[in-house]
């Protein structure tokens, strides 16, 4: 089913590419231009509306407005129609520099624009005004000239949503209008078809239907509760990652879920993530404690707990454990954004001359892992933004060495990659692996992160061959990242129809009637003894209903037990998603089920 879906999407993508090609930068400029066009249409139709900001986003654009009276999705077609009418005269964008005083006069009736003008003026930025048609707006630029000549159906308005001014819940609530935009109508339509398919696969809906996880208002938002079936998913994924890691010499460690704030002040996380940390109060100590927002500082202290020699390195600490982030309630979304994040975490402490071999081994693990899910990967070298040095730990020389090391590694591996400026972790550059799911969406999941900073901040040391003290290099790595987020991705990737090895319920046995329940129970016992996850449906229902119920639960194998099976005949296995049944002898059913359900190592 996954391959069929991907073939269709790939064919459509090829058709679109042949029809028209636009670079990523050109597409972003088009989307930004369409945000201006949206604002122009809105101000014509709603003169009292106050415009704020309107950037390009991954699949289109949005613009935030303060309306004097509310609008909703039903108003979008008429706004969209006016946009297409205005589009015919938008041939170019004219740029004009202006002073902050001039800008304040021009936007005197718009407090949101005035706030931005004051901020930009305080930072010494040059203000620029861009005009197309009869519409002018303050903007840094990046537009597409000649949009009048493009396919007018290349965009569409998608939805209306609420959004706080500048993302702050203490500010005014604005109305955000979203639009979808691509180079052509065909590409836009392909994206819309993908979004429709994504709705059917929404993990929040399927997770409930398949009894995988739940949320409770008494427990709190962003704190998922995994059911027995969902817990099997978690355990199977963890077992698979461990099976891939173990041959490379990883060892398991265990750390507590809280720590003194001093740990994170030393690491630098305290300053960088102050707003995301949960604080723990105690009446029995004066020490300030927090729930751990990440694991790496704890792991440094395992390394520091005893003297280390160059002969001890590399040390590879692995752990699947939960961290806690104080996310805004409005940003929480199913398993994709939660407050309790179970990380597939590992940290390697090694010598500089060992970095490439260790990182290459991690890349091998990542490749094997995602091959099992038929998810193609591409690599991004995520580096620091040199214009924002305060956002990172360490000096320019440290970053230059770290980035250079990863570039050499990628070259040695003959791995193609693209550059992500500003996408680095605050302590070092990384290689991020972006996986493509069954309906063409991209997910950044796995990562290899190089860190020269934390060993320095924690004064980690090992003795080299001359018994001189040296700093180790630290490699952070994740294969599936957050278990919660990855399970959400997997639910949608497979549309809930998991492969046999991952499925919470691998086999369901349905008895035709009470007469055959004992035979069905015996078969269940044999399969369970071999480690198969199997259930028995012996309810007094018609067998057709039992088969439909198994299909609704997307059980990989369904076996109906009746007279033929009682008398020793071959077993017909109904395979979910297939029109044809497997025919397996009774002497082979256990072995075949075990083979089908084993980890894909």
Structure report:
- The protein has 19 helices and 28 strands.
- Helix 13 (about 395-410) links the parallel strand 17 and strand 18 (about 415-420).
- Residues about 1-20 have low confidence and may be disordered.
- The strands form 7 sheets. The protein has an 8-stranded mixed beta sheet, with helices on both faces. Strands 1, 2, 3, 7 and 8 form a 5-stranded antiparallel beta sheet that branches. A 5-stranded mixed beta sheet has the order 25-24-26-27-28, with helices on both faces.
- The chain is globular and about 90 Å long.
- With about 600 residues, it is α+β, with helices and mostly antiparallel strands.
- Helix 2 crosses helix 3 (about 75-85) and helix 12 crosses helix 13 (about 395-410).
- Helices cover about 35% and strands about 25% of the residues.
- It folds into 3 domains: about 20-185, Threonyl-tRNA Synthetase, Chain A, domain 2, CATH 3.30.980.10; about 225-495, 2-Layer Sandwich (BirA Bifunctional Protein, domain 2); about 505-595, Anticodon-binding domain (Rossmann fold), CATH 3.40.50.800.
Number of DSSP strand runs? 28
Can you give the mean pLDDT? 92
State the separation between the terminal residues, measured CA to CA.
Answer: 22 Å
Q: How many structural domains in the coordinates?
A: 3
Radius of gyration: 28 Å
Reported by name, the CATH topology of the largest domain is: BirA Bifunctional Protein, domain 2
Helix content: 25-40%
Structural class: alpha+beta
Number of helices: 19
How many strands, what sense, and barrel or not for the largest sheet? 8 strands, mixed
What is the CATH superfamily label of the largest domain?
Answer: Bira Bifunctional Protein, Domain 2
Give the uncertain stretches in residue-range form: 1-19
The CATH architecture assignment of the largest domain turns out to be 2-Layer Sandwich
Instruction: Give the strand line-up of the largest sheet.
Output: 11-15-16-23-20-19-17-18
The CATH C-level name of the largest domain is Alpha Beta
Task: Quote the beta fraction.
Answer: 15-25%
Shape: globular
């Amino acid at each position: 089913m996954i391959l069929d879906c991907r073939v269709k999407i790939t064919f459509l993508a090829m058709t679109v590419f042949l029809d028209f090609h636009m670079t990523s930068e050109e597409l972003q400029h088009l989307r930004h231009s369409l945000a201006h066009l949206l604002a122009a249409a809105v101000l014509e139709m709603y003169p009292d509306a106050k415009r704020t900001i309107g950037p390009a986003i991954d699949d289109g654009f949005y613009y935030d407005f303060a309306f004097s009276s509310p609008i909703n999705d039903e108003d979008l077609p008429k706004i969209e129609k006016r946009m297409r009418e205005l589009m015919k005269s938008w041939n170019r964008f004219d740029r004009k520099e202006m002073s902050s005083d001039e800008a304040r006069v021009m936007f005197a009736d718009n407090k949101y624009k005035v706030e931005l003008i004051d901020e930009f003026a305080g930072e010494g930025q040059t203000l620029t005004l861009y005009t197309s048609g009869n519409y002018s707006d303050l903007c840094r630029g990046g537009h597409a000239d000649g949009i009048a000549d493009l396919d007018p159906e290349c965009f569409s308005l998608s939805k209306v949503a609420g959004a706080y001014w500048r993302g702050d819940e203490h500010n005014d609530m604005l109305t955000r209008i979203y639009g979808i935009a691509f180079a052509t109508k065909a590409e836009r339509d392909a994206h819309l078809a993908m979004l429709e398919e994504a709705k059917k696969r929404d993990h929040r809906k399927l997770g409930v239907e398949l009894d995988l996880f739940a949320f409770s208002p008494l427990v709190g938002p962003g704190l998922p509760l995994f059911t027995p079936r969902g817990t099997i998913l978690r355990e199977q994924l963890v077992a698979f990652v461990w099976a891939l890691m173990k041959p490379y010499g990883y060892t398991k460690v265990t750390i507590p879920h809280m720590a003194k704030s001093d740990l994170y002040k030393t690491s630098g996380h305290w300053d960088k993530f102050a707003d995301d940390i949960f604080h723990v109060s105690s009446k029995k100590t004066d020490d300030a404690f927090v729930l751990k927002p990440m694991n790496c500082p704890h792991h440094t202290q395992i390394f520091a707990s005893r003297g280390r020699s160059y002969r001890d390195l590399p040390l590879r600490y692995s752990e699947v454990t939960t961290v806690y982030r104080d996310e805004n309630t409005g940003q929480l979304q199913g398993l994709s954004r939660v407050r309790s994040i179970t990380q597939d975490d590992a940290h390697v402490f090694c010598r500089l001359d060992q970095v490439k071999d260790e990182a290459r081994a991690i890349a091998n693990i990542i490749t094997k892992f995602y091959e099992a899910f038929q998810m193609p990967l591409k690599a991004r070298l995520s580096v620091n933004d040199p214009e924002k040095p305060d956002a990172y730990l360490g000096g320019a020389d440290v970053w230059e060495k770290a980035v250079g090391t990863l570039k050499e590694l990628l070259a040695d591996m003959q791995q193609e990659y693209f550059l992500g400026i500003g996408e680095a972790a605050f302590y070092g550059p990384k290689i991020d692996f972006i996986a493509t799911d069954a309906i063409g969406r991209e997910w950044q999941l796995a990562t290899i992160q190089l860190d020269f900073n934390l060993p320095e901040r924690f004064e980690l040391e090992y003795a080299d061959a001359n018994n001189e003290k040296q700093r180790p290099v630290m490699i952070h790595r994740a294969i599936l990242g957050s278990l919660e987020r990855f399970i959400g991705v997997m639910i949608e990737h497979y549309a809930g129809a998991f492969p046999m090895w991952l499925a919470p319920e691998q086999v369901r046995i349905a008895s035709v009637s009470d007469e055959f329940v004992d035979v069905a129970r015996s078969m269940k016992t044999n399969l369970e003894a071999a480690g198969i996850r199997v259930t028995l449906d012996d309810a007094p229902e018609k067998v057709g209903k039992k088969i439909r119920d198994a299909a609704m639960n997307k059980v990989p194998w369904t076996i109906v037990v009746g007279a033929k099976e009682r008398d020793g005949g071959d077993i017909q296995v109904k395979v979910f998603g297939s029109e044809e049944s497997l025919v397996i002898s009774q002497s082979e059913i256990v072995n075949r089920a075990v083979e089908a359900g084993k980890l894909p190592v």
